[in-house]
Amino acid sequence: PILYSYFRSSCSWRVRIALALKGISYDLVPVNLIKDGGQQFSAEFKALNPMQQVPALKIDGITLSQSLAIINYLEETRPNPRLLPQDPKKRAQARMIADHIASGIQPLQNLSVLKQMGEKKTEWAQNCIASGFQALEQILQHTAGRYCVGDEVSMADLCLVPQVANAERFKVDMGPYPTISRINKALLELEAFKISHPSRQPDTPAELRA
C-alpha cells in the first residue's frame, strides 16, 4: 500500500492510526499542503484524487480517498483488530461520533476554509471546534467507557485524537470537555497513536519533531 499523507493533516492521521492498529505496513508519500502553493493542486496528484485532498491510499489495485471510506475498507478487508464494535447499537454510536467529527467539526476548520477567513481564522476555528465539542462531550457521557464507545478502540477514537490536537493548536480551552480530554489522554498512551502522531512522520519539519 502507498499512503499519500501530510504530517499535520488530521484526516491523514486517522488513516495512519488505522494502518498502525491493523499492522499494515505501507510506503508513505508526503504531499505538502503549504509548499509550492500546495502540492495537492499538482496535475499529478489531481489525477490520483480529483478532490485534491489528503489522504489517498493505493491498496489492492484501487485508489481510495476520504478517510472514513478508507478506514471502512480496511475494516472490511482486514477485520482484525476490529475498529467497529460487534453490537449494532455500539457500532452505530462509533459511526455517529466519527461522522460528528469528520463532517460536523473538521471541515469547518480545514485549511481551505481558514484561508478564506483571513485575520479571523483563529477565532473562527475556535468557535467551530468549541460548538462541536460541546455536543460531543454530551454524547460521550452516554457512550464512553475507557474510550469513545465502551472499552474498545473504535473508528470514533481515530477521529477524536487528531481533532483534539487541532483544538490544542488553535488554543481552544479544553476545560469544559473533561470526557474528551480523558479519552484523548488514554488513547495517546497506545503505541499505534504514538507512531502515527504528526511529530513522528517522515515529512515532519525538524522543529516540530518529537
Layout of strands and helices, then pairs:
Elements: E1 2-5, H1 10-21, E2 27-30, H2 43-48, E3 56-59, E4 62-65, H3 67-77, H4 88-104, H5 111-117, H6 121-143, H7 155-169, H8 178-187, H9 191-195
Parallel strand pairs: 1-2
Antiparallel strand pairs: 1-3, 3-4
EC number: 2.5.1.18, 5.2.1.2
Protein name: Maleylacetoacetate isomerase
Cofactor: glutathione
CATH topology of the largest domain, what is it called? Glutathione S-transferase Yfyf (Class Pi), Chain A, domain 2
Report the β-strand fraction as a percent range. Answer: 5-15%
Q: State the distance separating the first and last CA atoms.
A: 26 Å
Helix vs. strand class? alpha+beta
Number of helices: 9
Low-confidence stretches: none
CATH architecture of the largest domain: Up-down Bundle
Helix content: 40-55%
User: Can you summarize the main beta sheet?
Assistant: 4 strands, mixed
Look at the structure and give the mean pLDDT. Answer: 96
Q: What is the helix/strand order?
A: EHEHEEHHHHHHH
Give a count of the beta strands, DSSP E runs of length 2 or more: 4
Catalytic activity: RX + glutathione = an S-substituted glutathione + a halide anion + H(+); 4-maleylacetoacetate = 4-fumarylacetoacetate
Subcellular location: Cytoplasm
Main location: cytoplasm
Pfam family, one: GST_N_2
Provide a brief overview of the structure.
This protein is an alpha+beta fold and 210 residues long. It is 50% helix and 8% strand.
